[in-house]
Amino acid sequence: MKTKKGEETYNNILEAAEQLFSEKSVSKVTINDIVQHTGIAKGTFYLYFESKEALVWDFMDKKFGYADRWIKEIVLKGYSDEDICEIIDFIMGFVKKHMKMLKIMHNVRFQGFLGINRLEDQYMKKWITPFSLWLEKGRLEKALNIRDSTFMAHYIIVTLHEVVDRVIMDDFPFSIDEVGDELKTITLKLLK
């Protein structure tokens, strides 16, 4: 896959998967559907992915990898109101940019395919650990008024996740921008 053509084939498979996942449930998309849509042989698919499940994990990593890299660097952020609002703005901007894909991922069948516990383990822990380290650094510097950084990281990440989930699934009568503004106010009150 290190060749330009290999990278192109890999990306074409992921793009076909995205289109098919948006048209029908991930559990109903078959490898045959993907190879037919991509125009490759089934054996070629298996050169890149050992299974449909492996494709789905790669798909999510490819789509959301930059957010994972961003959150790992959160420990470099400051603790001013502007810094905290910038964090919320990034998260809300990410959600806004990827709303269609996040709706696909939040489909019960998608979660059932991968397993909700595995999804949460894979993604929530990626965000909670660096967020907790950032909060602990702020607590030790006395820039944040919190007692337990790990608890607060869980609380904030889970709260953000749940609220954003409701917006993604159209369960709230608010836009992502309105929710983002409220989350900034709440987060500032929790941390200061």
UniProtKB/TrEMBL annotation:
Keyword Kinase in annotation: no
Stored InterPro entries: DNA-bd_HTH_TetR-type_CS, Homeodomain-like_sf, HTH-type_Tx_Regulator, HTH_TetR
Domain spans labelled HTH tetR-type: 7-67
Record-annotated DNA-binding residue ranges: 30-49
Presence of the UniProt keyword DNA-binding in the record: yes
GO MF annotation list: DNA binding
Protein name: TetR/AcrR family transcriptional regulator
Organism: Isachenkonia alkalipeptolytica
UniProtKB keywords: DNA-binding
Matching Pfam families: TetR_N (PF00440)
